[in-house]
Amino acid sequence: MSHSHEDVPPVTTEVHDNSWSANLETPAHAEDPDVVVEQAIDAVEMTTAGNHVNLVSHADHGHPETYLFDALAEAFGETISVEYVQQCGCGGHVTRVHREA
Questions:
Q1: Which of 20, 44, 69, 91 has the highest local Cβ count within 10 Å?
Q2: Can you give the pTM of this predicted structure?
Q3: Does residue 8 form part of some domain?
Q4: Where is this region: Disordered (predicted)?
């Protein structure tokens, strides 16, 4: 079953003035890599400069370097740094995005 992007609850509704993690591993995220990218960008936008967000993405889409890194670079340019942290035991992936000051 496919979800429209509007049907997927937001990953956050508040600005984070600290480092935090965004869960992009729900069934809706597994079904649509575009939702993962859209909500990853939202998560970075909601993270203040000097902090990072760990984007925990679904294993179904493979390594985030293949679909997420370029989208983040296009959206934020040199205002972020992106680091692949690890693959989780469940198969998902953790990508750390640091907002530069």
A1: 44
A2: 0.90
A3: no
A4: 1-32
